[in-house]
């Protein structure tokens, strides 16, 4: 199995960690990531220390407290495939965070480095910018939670992407692994995948121009794919729809990518 593919795990109890990775665990310098299932009435507490975090109420409902700020009854969907945006909370370094599930909830925690403490901010579902990208078999639907234009975070970018059956996403292959602005930005990336129906799978390839990385993975429901650098397209088979949440972070919060030149021609097809 590829070292870039992290399989979903299930633990017992009121708090179940599906994924729990610090930056070093992922071989990354800027991104940590957790997916947590929390049963109704259960509280999860943590300190941000030197990191910033985007707390995404992925499914279900929860109350979130950051220091003395309370954000209640957050969450807008029972399933990611309701295809509506959800609520999130941004918290900066040196904060205390409490998450209490109102009903059974799945919470996604997206971490990155943080050098300056910033204000806590509620990112309501209606604050997400929503857009459709691509054409032909390259269509996808996007919820921008923390785009590079959002002022809340120092380094974090967070986005949700839906790709219908038989389509490709993150395609044509593109990369953002060179710190050479304004031409390209260096952003590491993590993909958290879900499928509908859940027994489905997608294929994701991560590769570099010199093929020092060239991994093609069969990704199942709730798996994680790490993209330290290189191109990272996703193919969705017939019969199954795809959801993934992307986290990106790097030395500069700018998303400037370059397409693989040999495949760029598909963009301009009539």
Biggest pleated sheet: 7 strands, antiparallel
Q: Please give the order of strands in the largest beta sheet.
A: 1-22-19-24-14-13-12
Distance between the termini: 39 Å
Tally of individual helices: 1
The total strand number stands at 25
Taking all residues together, what is the mean pLDDT? 96
- The helix/strand order is EEHEEEEEEEEEEEEEEEEEEEEEEE
Comma- or semicolon-separated keywords:
mainly beta, 1 helix, 49% strand, globular
Describe this structure in words.
The chain has 270 residues and is an all-beta fold. It is 1% helix and 49% strand. The chain has one helix at 23-26, and strands at residues 5-6, 15-21, 32-38, 43-47, 51-59, 62-66, 69-74, 88-91, 96-101, 105-113, 121-123, 129-133, 140-146, 157-163, 168-169, 174-175, 177-180, 184-186, 188-196, 201-207, 214-220, 224-227, 234-235, 241-249, 258-259. It has a seven-stranded antiparallel β-sheet with strand order 1-22-19-24-14-13-12, with no helix packed on it. Strand 17 (177-180) and strand 18 (184-186) form a beta hairpin.
Structure described in brief:
With 270 residues, the protein is an all-beta fold. The chain has one helix at 23-26, and strands spanning 5-6, 15-21, 32-38, 43-47, 51-59, 62-66, 69-74, 88-91, 96-101, 105-113, 121-123, 129-133, 140-146, 157-163, 168-169, 174-175, 177-180, 184-186, 188-196, 201-207, 214-220, 224-227, 234-235, 241-249, 258-259.
């Amino acid at each position: 199995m590829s070292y870039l593919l992290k399989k979903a795990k299930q633990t017992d109890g009121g708090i179940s960690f599906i994924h729990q990775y610090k930056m070093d665990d992922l071989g990354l310098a800027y991104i940590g990531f957790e997916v947590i299932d929390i049963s109704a009435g259960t509280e999860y507490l943590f300190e941000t220390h030197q990191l910033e975090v985007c707390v995404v109420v992925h499914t279900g409902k929860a109350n979130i407290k950051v220091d003395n700020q309370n954000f209640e009854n957050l969450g807008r969907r029972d399933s990611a495939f309701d295809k509506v945006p959800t609520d999130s909370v941004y918290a900066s370094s040196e904060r205390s965070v409490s998450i209490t599930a109102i009903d059974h909830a799945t919470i996604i925690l997206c971490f990155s480095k943080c050098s300056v403490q910033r204000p806590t901010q509620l990112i309501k579902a209606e604050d997400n910018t929503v857009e459709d990208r691509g054409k032909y078999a390259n269509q996808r639907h996007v919820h921008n939670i923390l785009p590079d234009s959002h002022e809340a975070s120092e380094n974090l970018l967070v986005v949700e992407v839906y790709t219908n059956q038989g389509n490709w996403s993150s395609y044509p292959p593109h990369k953002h692994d060179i710190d050479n602005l304004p031409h390209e930005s260096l952003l590491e990336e993590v993909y958290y995948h879900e499928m509908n129906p859940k027994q489905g799978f997608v294929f994701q390839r991560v590769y570099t121009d010199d093929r020092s990385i060239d991994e093609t993975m069969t990704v199942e429901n709730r798996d994680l794919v790490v993209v330290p650098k290189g191109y990272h397209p996703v193919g969705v088979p017939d019969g199954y729809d795809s959801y993934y949440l992307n986290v990106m972070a790097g030395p500069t919060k700018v998303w400037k990518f370059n397409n693989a030149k040999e495949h760029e021609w598909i963009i301009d097809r009539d």
